[in-house]
Amino acid sequence: MSLPQPLALLGLVLAAVVSIPVLTVLGSLTQPTQGLWLELVALTLPRYLMNTVGLLLGVGVGTVIVGISAAWLVTVCRFPGSQALAWALILPMAMPAYLLAYTYGDLLQYPGPVQTALRGWLGLPRGATYWFPEVRSLGGAIVVMTAVLYPYVYLLARAAFFEQSVGALEASRSLGRGPWRSFLTVALPLVRPAIMAGLALVMMEALADFGTVKHFEVDTFTTGIYLSWFAMGSPVGAAKLAAGLLVCVLAIIGFERLSRGPRRYHQTTARAQPITPFRLRGWRAVGAIVVCALPITVGFLVPAGRLLQLAVTAGDQRFGPAFVQLATNSLLLAVGASAVAVVLAVTVAYGLRLVPSRLMHVTAWVATLGYTVPGSVIAVGILVPFGAFDNGLDAWMRATFGVSTGLLLSGTVFALLFAYVVRFLALSFNSTEAGLGRITPNMDGVARSLGCRPLGVLVRVHLPLLRGSLLTGALLVFVDTLKELPATLIIRPFNFDTLAVRVYLLASDERLAEAATAALTIVAVGIVPVVALSLAIARGRPGRAA
Predict the structure, then answer these.
(1) Pairwise CA distance, residues 63 & 298, whole Å
(2) What domain range includes position 216?
(3) C-alpha 301, offset from chain centre
(4) Long-range contact set of residues 454-457: C-beta below 8 Å, sequence gap at least 24
């Protein structure tokens, strides 16, 4: 189908450019293998695969249990503090998983405060051996990621529980089923789509993690990509690992969409009455408080309190001009990425509105696939074509003019910004597309009848109405860019650090006290959208019911 609208054609071109990293990684599957790659497959690939599968299973089960339990309790039950716990359960979203890994690794290690206090309480001499759970392990990584990722399941499950009709539960009770069986056989199946959607997000975030598994010495596909590129000097091996990880991501997305099969999960009555909460007392109320307060404590209060203590007592000695430079680098990158992502999102979404062809839909989908892809995979997909372009241009310039151009794209701030845009474009695009969907096409027709061209309709009509959606998308991209670690580590220019990189480097050297200052800065910025989300929920139906 032709594209008569210049804006639609521009949106198609921009979406195609953003799709290059993902297509590059998939294309690496056709490249010939090398000796180092064969050795990598034989020696390390089974370990990467087992650890990655174990991580996904553990984090998936943990987040489903914690998220559904908390969502059901604060939605259906009333107990002391339930209203405060309902919004506080979102707070761990502001805490990057790698910060929890650094914090609990410091708290629970042998010379840490927990084991030191335990030895003092038991009267054990210094150097005594005893059993204590090993935090730097696959189990530790599962617990840490569960503590920060369960809000994905919690938010979607809570919203789905609120939409359920009391009629279905009352019918179940009238047939002789108690509250527990009614929950398992009626309420839980009705929220299955929401749970699966949240679980898919959790698994993709777990796959994308680098700082946690690296700090806990758990070899996964993500750490393997980093080691293959830098330690082994094998771009082909890194690209093939990235392609394998991308296939896993696509499989998770496909599983989430196909798992429902022909089944449908919806209310059969036009007038659905909301669930009437029932009050818990005694030991049941205490149990509900513990179930809801424990994930908040583990996922936010303990790590935030520990980081605050370390920052106050022994913060970063470079807190001054050097720290200001780190913060400036992070903020400028976050602002630049959010601005570019919003502009691209508006262009692609509006082009899709003008020409909703199959080609536009497919290209836009591939362009927004970056959010489901780990940052390390995006980095490989960018460095391979950028490196080929730089080397080809340099060779041609040397042969033609005797001048070396060096690296024009690889290892530059431009490449880093491009990686952020590819990674987080979906956040701004989804927000923009949802905002455009709420604008009736009749407004476009009226504006066109008054002489406005498509660009004029966008500027004069849509952009003012999209202000809230664009701000939401920009804020989400800003915060995620500030926290992003694996792509930044791989692509960043030489001697160019951000707050996230500073935290990683210091924590890798067991200098968490110095890393606490930069870590708290990341958390302080990340908590802004979480608070905004909590306030938005409080103004909506869930908040009133809570």
Answers:
(1) 13
(2) 33-314+509-546
(3) 21
(4) 454/5, 454/6, 454/7, 454/350, 454/354, 455/7
In this structure, the answer to whether residues 10 and 156 fall within a common structural domain is no
**Global pTM value:** 0.77
Residue 546 identity (one-letter amino acid): A
Residue 212 and residue 196 share a domain:
yes
CA distance 155 to 71: 7
Same domain, 398 and 368: yes
Q: Which of 459, 477, 498 is the last residue of a domain?
A: 498
Q: For the chain, how many structural domains are there in total?
A: 2
Q: What is the CATH number of the domain that holds 385?
A: 1.10.3720.10
pLDDT digit string (tens) for the chain, length 546 residues: 444 567 677 777 878 888 888 787 777 666 666 555 566 666 677 888 889 889 989 999 999 999 999 988 888 888 898 888 988 898 898 888 888 998 998 888 888 888 888 888 888 887 778 888 888 899 999 999 999 999 888 887 887 777 655 555 556 555 555 556 666 666 666 677 777 777 877 887 888 788 889 889 898 888 877 777 666 666 666 667 777 777 776 676 666 666 655 554 444 444 445 556 678 888 889 999 999 999 999 999 999 998 888 888 876 666 667 778 888 898 899 999 999 999 998 988 888 888 878 888 888 877 877 776 778 778 888 888 888 888 888 888 888 888 888 778 888 899 999 999 998 888 788 778 877 877 777 887 877 787 788 888 888 888 888 887 788 778 878 888 888 888 898 888 888 888 888 888 888 877 888 888 888 888 888 787 777 766 665 555 433 433
